[in-house]
Design goal:
There is one protein chain. By secondary structure, the chain is an all-alpha fold. It has one domain. The protein is 61% helix and 0% strand. It has four helices and no strands. The protein has helices at residues 3-17, 37-45, 47-56, 70-92. Helix 2 (37-45) runs parallel beside helix 4.
Length: 93
């Protein structure tokens, strides 16, 4: 791999890890703030960082407890499958 690509990849991963913690949403009332499709899509895309953050913090969860059900799950699945398929293609090269 080219060193430039590796540096860009590392910089991107460092920037995205700041988005993994969802502790800011714990102050919101679950009856008022409910995650839908877009929230599920985002949580599916950052699931790797959430898993790592769950090791060090009890305030981080992979799957939002206040979601609207099917649409959240569908978005989560799409985000997860999109990230995992892109990772698999990059690793196979």
């Amino acid at each position: 791999m080219k060193p430039t690509f590796i540096l860009i990849l590392i910089a991107t991963l460092v920037l995205l890890t700041g988005c993994a913690d969802n502790a800011a949403y714990t102050v919101l009332d679950p009856n008022v703030h409910v995650y839908g499709f877009w929230g599920g899509l985002w949580h599916g895309m950052i699931v790797t960082f959430d898993l790592i953050a769950m090791i060090f913090s009890d305030n981080v969860s992979v799957y939002a407890p206040s979601n609207n059900g099917g649409w959240y799950a569908f978005g989560f699945w799409l985000g997860l499958s999109g990230i995992l398929s892109g990772t698999g293609k990059a690793l196979s090269r």
